[in-house]
Amino acid sequence: MPADASAFVSDAATELLAGVVKRPSRLADGRELIYFDDAETTLPAERRIDARELDARPGTATMRRDVLTGEWITVAANRQNRAMLPPAELDPLAPQSETNPSEVPDQYDVAVFENRSPSLGPALARAAGDAPAAEDAPRDLDDLIAPGIGRTRTAVGRCEVVCFSPERTGSFGTQTVRRARTVIEAWADRTMHLGALPGVQQVFPFENRGEQIGVTLQHPHGQIYAYPYITPRTRALLTQIDLEGADLFARIVDLEDAGPRVVLSAEHWLAYVPFAARWPVEVHLVPRRHAADFAELTSAERDELARVYLRLLRGVDALYETPTPYIAAWHQAPVSVGRESVRMHLQLTSPRRGADKLKFLAGSEAAMGAWTAEIPPEVGAERLRAALAAVGEVTT
Q1: What pLDDT is attached to residue 148?
Q2: Which segments constitute the Galactose-1-phosphate uridyl transferase C-terminal domain (predicted)?
């Protein structure tokens, strides 16, 4: 570590809900770094500066429109060189040390920073060291759906890394209730601020867990993508809401709450295996009251979510003797459309169809999007309820 790394910075702090404290900072190349301190943290307010010598940030990537589907594909060559399963002593998400020049300069509870190898980048330079301003950003939603062959735009937006813990191994499910509550507060804060960035249309927090999913770092972490368009999955959802009615999520909750696929029922949250589950392990978690995104959740809803979500993840892990690979995808309403009808919800999916078997997407599913489910949703729900019963209530 450079000799002057003993210098400290103490930016203006903001107290959020549940006693969580937000402390903004910057990395050596100008990327934003934010510490979210647990309630009653033992860490000092001051944080060591990032004294590394880093290359200039890459320019914002380009995206191309697939005229056959109308979908936008980001071409981000800088991601070819991102870290791939480094040894524990060179964990880039652990706090910096004399021998590990990682991305986080000091000790932390939860840390959020701009990805060094992003798919999406800034529309405008915000500070010294920022990526250059985007030259051809999307104009608006109409511009994004306009027809034409060979259309390109600059891939404006943001990709952030969310470190759940300074520990080198684990996942969201291995955290304490207090730490889970801190991460939820970070998700709410970032959802609000990323949604206000120029050109951002949708904010997506998620966690990839397990090498079978394609994880490249073992450190307990997730990511947040702030897209310059409404994603294909959400556009399909908006189409279904137009067809089924603006109260679609309320009716889904009523249907599942009274049916055989519920796995967890709480005051503010409901978890269930969906009626038409695709994956061998698939469970949805939804607030009983309408909320478009994390920022709209009440303090009570966030408090309960910390316990409910931890129990759900630990139940998924209890299905087998070894940890279950999964994608935990938090779907949220777009920034400017569908706010009154798209309810935020988790869709957790795993390709694990047995102790030593994975479901691979082949011709029909990968090429045509025509799925076949091998495990009936009611059977999947029964298995998950048994695993959750073995786990018991989460208290710490």
Answers
A1: 96
A2: 259-389
